[in-house]
Design a protein that fits this description.
The protein is about 25% helix and about 25% strand. The chain has eleven helices and 19 strands. It has an eight-stranded parallel β-sheet with strand order 8-7-6-5-4-3-2-9. Strands 10-13-16-15-14-17 form a six-stranded antiparallel beta barrel. Bound molecules: pyridoxal-5'-phosphate.
């Protein structure tokens, strides 16, 4: 028998979340970020939930190829662009759109032989200082691209660093970047793409022509704990669950796990769960990290081991060996353990937990509700 742990991927929840995000920005076309193997969910597993999307975004050509193999005929954007000139051949062959964020990428395009001209996204660095042309260089880059026979259309693009909250001392995290974008290329023709999940939810008026949604599409909240995923009307796409494989009766003063990091104040029942950091559960999640056992909210106790972690069974006297424990996601009994809460407890973000789901965890797509 395999270890009693599984991740369940609900493509229907993804479709629901995309519809919610569409309601926030009804005038914009919707691009869904599928990089990092669909944020750890598996491109093939979420694919049926993507039917309503207008375009998909990936980082690796390999991921674009898989999407074409699945039958996706729509637009696919390489969101970091080409890494070397040869990548342009894949763009022509697979009909990929690509980001252009530095001068060499324009040089490569100028030397590229293609029958069909390419759609490109010209990326302007409006303050994130990660990828993109400086605002002062944006017009010249646009003009060079516009003059190339290899280029058919240019969408203007930037990425927002603080759409999920305030910036430094400012109340608003995006105003300075919107202003920089407008100053850099406000009068240039073509569509614009600015908003990630946080911007679509918190600043829908700034969505532009193309939104690029990731995290919220997978059912996590970009501004947790200010808003929960439920506040935004989002449903979890990934649920990680495992069974209790042993129960310990721990006396007062007894300790649990490595380093005796947890000491029982009173006698208590502790469930040992078949999930550890080698499954992608964060080792740094301390005692008190929320978890659901048989649909009842409780907490972890002690340190997370490689293959196991411990939970407090005090609130769930009926739970025992074989009980299902929801580490994050839907518990199958109408309850949800938000991945955002686990991430917060571990000092990280839902992005990282989703992407870190280990390959060894058996994963299935949801056939019927858990
Ligand atoms: C991943 C990514 C997005 C999506 O971001 P979320 O915060 O997950 O919505 C948008 N734009 C770019 C350039 C990205 O790399």
């Amino acid at each position: 028998m395999p270890r009693p742990i599984e991740a369940v991927i609900d493509a229907g929840a993804l479709a629901h979340n995309l519809a919610r995000l569409r309601q926030r920005a009804p005038g914009a076309r919707q691009m869904v970020a599928l990089k990092a193997n669909a944020y750890g969910h598996g491109i093939e597993r979420v694919f049926t939930g993507l039917a309503g999307a207008d375009a998909l975004a990936v980082v690796d050509i390999d991921e674009a190829q898989r999407l074409r193999g699945l039958g996706w005929r729509g637009a696919i954007l390489l969101i970091e662009g080409c890494f070397e000139p040869r990548d342009l051949e894949a763009c022509s062959r697979l009909n990929l759109w690509h980001v252009v964020h530095r001068t060499e990428q324009i040089d490569w395009l100028a030397g590229h032989k293609t029958r069909e001209a390419h759609q490109v996204f010209l990326k302007v660095n409006t303050g994130m200082n990660r990828l993109g042309f400086a605002p002062a260089a944006a017009r010249a880059a646009w003009a060079r691209l516009a003059a190339l026979a290899q280029v058919d259309g240019i969408t203007l693009m930037t990425h927002l660093s603080d759409a999920d909250g305030p910036r430094l001392g400012a109340a608003d995290g995006i105003a300075h970047q919107l202003a920089a974008f407008d100053a850099a290329c406000g009068e240039l023709p073509g569509a614009a793409s600015l908003a990630n999940s946080a911007a679509v939810l918190r600043h829908p008026e700034a969505s532009g022509d193309w939104v690029r949604v990731g995290l919220a599409a997978y059912g996590a909240s970009p501004d947790h704990p200010l808003h929960t995923a439920a506040d935004w009307g989002l449903q979890p796409v990934m649920s990680l669950r495992a069974q209790v494989i042993a129960v310990q009766q721990v006396p007062a003063g007894g300790t649990v796990g490595y380093g005796s990091a947890f000491v029982a104040a009173a006698p208590m029942r502790v469930g040992i769960v078949a999930c550890g950091y080698a499954d992608g559960y964060p080792r740094v999640a301390p005692t008190g990290t929320p978890v659901r056992v048989s649909g009842v909210a409780t907490r972890t106790v002690g340190r997370v081991s490689m293959d196991m972690l411990a939970v407090d069974l005090t609130p769930c006297p009926d739970a025992g060996c074989g009980s299902w424990v929801t580490l994050w996601g839907a518990d199958g009994q109408g309850g949800v353990q938000p991945v955002d809460e686990v991430a917060a407890s571990a000092g990280t973000l839902a992005y990282e937990l989703m992407c870190a789901l280990a390959a060894r965890v058996p994963t299935r797509t949801q056939a019927k509700p858990l």
